[in-house]
Design a protein that fits this description.
This protein is mainly α. It is about 70% helix and about 0% strand. The chain has a two-stranded antiparallel ribbon with strand order 1-2. The longest helix is centred in the first third of the chain and has 35 residues. Bound molecules: heme C.
Amino acid sequence: MYPIWEVPNLSAGIILGIIATFHILPSHLSVSAMWFNLYVETKAYRENRPEYLEFIKKYTLLLLVFAYVLGSLSGVGIWYSATVANPRGLSGLIHNYVWGWAAEWVFFIVEVIGIFVYYYTLNKVDIKTHLKIGWIFAIASWITMIIITGILSFMLSPGKWPQTGNFFDGFFNQTYWSQLSVRTTVMFGIGAGYAIAVSARLKNDDVRKLIVKTASRWGIAGLFLGALAVQWYLKTLPENAHGLLGSVVPKGLKTGMVVSFGAMILYFVYAHIKPLAIRIVPAILAIAVLFVGIWSAERVREIIRKPYVISHYMYSNQIIGSDVRSKGVKAEADLINERGILKIAPFVPSGLRDINEGNKLQAGKMIAIIECSSCHVLDENGLRSLPKMMKRLGFKDAEVVEGFLDALAGFPYMPPFHGTAAEKKALAAYLVSFNK
Ligand code: HEC
């Protein structure tokens, strides 16, 4: 256990979510863009149209700056924010998938070097060699996605891993292939959005037309196949996740996904019909619309994993929820219920380890910070505000709240309360204090 990162009015998870969603734009662009480049460059080579290379140059520069400066920074940002938002969850992942990440970084290094080589050798080496460099980049780039998706999908559906502890049992789990398909298809929608934005800066109208028409077709195909892949993904979800999709996932997020998808399809169709009408500002707005869709989809993916950060292993509040025998890991409920969360969590101010009448409310707040704040802010505003929820429920009697805490285990999206009877009383007293 580690100190808790409490972000007033927002929550640590949302900060991580903002960085991670932003990261999808450059990362998925990076994986898809080179396929588009290869297509255009091969066409330039076959049809002997060197003017197409103007696009390649601009698109690759965007890739270099946006994906490999902002993308790399936000990638590091994910590591930093995940480390402080959920250190134990991240540690659990690293302990299982350190070699997965090591392999990913090897391919990432190939990408980073590849993009510079590809950009700076354009027009300097013969086009066949240049295409080979592009292929190496494109394949290395896709392999990073193949690897990272295994780790991401493991968090939602760890497959046979809890029994066997085997790397690949967790990696190739029931949502792996469907999630990889979603990312592999949607990335072409993202790449197409950027390609159209870049084309608005091209001087040659013929090239512009070709790029916008091709990109819009790729975009429509990518999003359309992506929508099919999403249907498949939904079918592969574990039962609990399905239930949460119907109950706790806010309507706004579903609307966000559908509206963003619909708007992007219309945009691509319009671009296809009027390729020369696209200007840079609307093209950037289209990318913002994509962002909304990705934000919604990623939030949904987070929510349907509740109450866990790693399903069937660790709850969002970092308490280990089940035995993982293959790894010698034991569930912590008995230990915490017997000794108390305030005794076990290492970063508790010393005056709060033992509860008495004088520190009861403060101790209760400390317990809420440890056990509830990964999903609820303790302020009036922000993610699932606890004060607001308590006011809505109108609980005024601490005993009723104790009953509610006993019932937490029955909610499909909340971990059970962990702690001693005195701690439950302190937390109840703190929660009731919102209604006084
Ligand atoms: C893993 C995430 C998670 C954790 C940890 C968590 N909750 Fe929740 N809680 C939720 C979700 C999701 C909802 C549903 C919110 C909604 O309906 O929009 C919820 C709802 C609630 C509600 C409203 C219930 C109702 O019937 O309307 C209360 C009260 C609540 N939580 C209290 C707590 C307390 C107290 C803790 C800590 C002991 C806690 N939660 C820990 C995710 C969590």
